[in-house]
Design brief:
Layout: H1 29-51, H2 66-78, H3 82-103, H4 109-130, H5 137-148, H6 155-174, H7 176-199, H8 202-241, H9 253-280, H10 291-315, H11 318-324, H12 328-332, H13 334-349, H14 362-386, H15 391-401
Helix pairs in contact: 1-3, 1-13, 1-14, 2-9, 2-14, 3-4, 3-5, 3-8, 3-10, 4-5, 4-15, 5-8, 6-8, 6-10, 7-8, 9-10
């Protein structure tokens, strides 16, 4: 997640060389809304693939009814990898915002951003070892540090890096030896994971998870780094393009329309083909070497960008901005909400809690996710009425700057203390 990474630019001259945070008032609400929507997709896919069954492995599923198959198909087409990809793009946007605004305030901006990512990595390791194997924070921090090596380069250099990453990721993931090594390791791992997570005590689960992180997850990091870096660099370029700066109704509207309609159409079409071929009609012809991987990753990115562009278009309409504003608190507290999801659902599904692992179908898990997401939205809105940040966002911010930050929102002045001379 990328919570509260945007900052203000209004700073006094006396503060210009201090490394300190700026106030919350210049948050980019559009990014908060998109992040809040993407958080829903991440929750639904974790419930489909990672909470209700062991995260790594070929997953023998519970007996699925027709409704479960339909829900699973909808999730695969509309959500699988799209929300995660959109989060990666937003993370790249956030890196650019942080660096740009910190540059305006202090000469040590890159040091500050590096420290911020290292703090995120520390949170990620704690999450991965003590709560949930499917952690994404460590990879965000790790590949974010890689992105910092390129973030100040010209756009042409970034496009060249994106092309190189896509080519490398496609060739490596499609190479028979790599695919075989990954797929051969996972099935043998699954049964042990099912026993550990399904019936183990908390300490037994932690012990198994630590071994799993080193034996299994590191194999995927070696394959995934190019894809993660690619999406973050796309986010950097999007921020440079000015799309998120636009306030006038017609700014970038044509570009956003092309991104929305083209990205969603192309991404939906290929995702539907993949799902039909995998789940319903495996006899459909296979594509040549490397092409399925290339098409999967590139169309997933287009689909994710289409979602983001579509939301930006809607946010330029007052009526839709009001409707979508309910997602803003979820986006502002995405870090806290993401870790809370892990805490609640691992407790429900793992053996030391509700022991639901492998016993819930896709439809049941989706209903659980929708209900919990609504509760998180309500809780986030209530919390942010009194506090400037979510609790984990506040800790992250405080550790980044090396001093405790104000958490409670300042109380408005009573009417009799108003400084407005017109009143």
């Amino acid at each position: 997640m990328n919570p509260d990474i945007s900052m203000t630019t209004a700073v006094s001259a006396a503060e210009a060389h201090d490394i300190s945070p700026v106030s919350r008032h210049a948050r980019i609400d559009d990014i908060d809304v998109i992040r809040g929507v993407a958080l829903f997709g991440v929750l639904m896919m974790n419930l489909a693939e990672s909470y209700r069954l062991p995260h790594w492995g070929i997953k023998p599923d519970v007996d699925l009814g027709r409704l479960d198959h339909v829900v699973h198909g909808v999730e695969q087409v509309l959500l699988s990898a799209k929300s995660y990809t959109l989060f990666l793009v937003l993370f790249g946007v956030g890196l650019s915002i942080f660096l740009e605004r910190a540059d305006a305030r202090a000469p040590r901006a890159m040091y500050l951003l590096t420290r911020r990512l290292l703090v995120l990595m520390a949170f990620g390791f704690m999450h991965a070892f003590f709560l949930f194997t499917g952690d994404i924070l460590v990879s965000y921090a790790l590949f974010g540090l890689l992105a910092l090596l390129l973030i100040r380069q010209r756009s042409a250099v970034l496009w060249a890096a994106i092309g190189t990453c896509l080519l490398f990721a496609t060739l490596v993931r499609s190479w028979p030896a790599v695919s075989s090594a990954l797929s051969d390791r996972i099935p043998g791992h699954y049964e042990g994971a099912l026993r550990a997570y399904g019936t183990g005590t908390y300490l037994e689960v932690v012990r198994f998870r630590v071994g799993e992180e080193f034996e299994v997850v590191t194999r995927f990091y070696g394959v995934a780094w190019a894809w993660e870096l690619l999406n973050m660099l796309i986010g950097v370029l999007l921020w440079r393009s000015g799309i998120f700066h636009a306030r006038a109704p017609d700014d970038h509207r044509r570009t956003l329309r092309w991104m929305a309609f083209g990205g969603i159409f192309i991404g939906f079409s290929y995702a539907l083909y993949e799902t039909v071929r995998a789940d319903f009609h495996p006899a459909l012809p296979a594509l040549p070497f490397g092409l399925p991987t290339l098409l999967h990753w590139s169309t997933t990115l287009l689909f994710a960008l289409g979602y983001g562009a579509g939301l930006l278009l809607l946010l330029r309409r007052d009526a839709w901005r009001k409707r979508l504003s309910v997602f803003s608190p979820l986006g502002r507290m995405a870090f806290t909400n993401y870790l809370t999801q892990s805490l609640v659902f691992t407790s429900l599904f793992y053996g030391y809690g509700g022991s639901l692992l492998g016993r819930v179908g896709h439809a049941g898990a989706a209903l659980m996710g929708i209900a919990f997401y609504i509760l998180q939205g309500i809780a986030s809105a209530i919390w942010l009425r009194r506090f400037s940040f979510g609790p984990l966002e506040w800790l992250w911010r405080s550790f980044t700057y090396g001093q405790w930050q104000p958490l409670r929102r300042p109380s408005p002045l009573p009417r009799r203390w108003s400084t407005n001379p017109c009143k």
